[in-house]
Amino acid sequence: QVQFVESGGGLVQPGGSLRLSCAASGSIFSMGWYRQAPGKQRELVAAITSGGSTDYADSVKGRFTISRDNTKNTVYLQMMSLKPEDTAVYYCNRHPVPYSYWGQGAQVTVSS
Length: 112
Description:
By secondary structure, the protein is mainly beta. The N and C termini lie far apart (39 Å). It has a six-stranded mixed beta sheet with strand order 2-10-9-4-5-6, with no helix packed on it. The chain contains no helices and ten strands.
């Protein structure tokens, strides 16, 4: 199965921005960015189809943008106006049915 490597996480102040990247080891189709905060279940943040249609969780709508580069088998998540509640480990995976394998994720910490 395809494997994923997430990158681009870090520590940012509230209101700041980050761009996450997800490099896949093979061809990708419909993809999603998911996140898991401490003590909480993993949740879908954004999704993009192979044709480029997108969908977002209400909590990030208007602040996050998902995009993809099919020539590089890479998916991106541009995050703006970050809030402390966005703090989580962010993962990419197939959507709507993720592969059983999850990458190491990218830690995003929003704090002053």
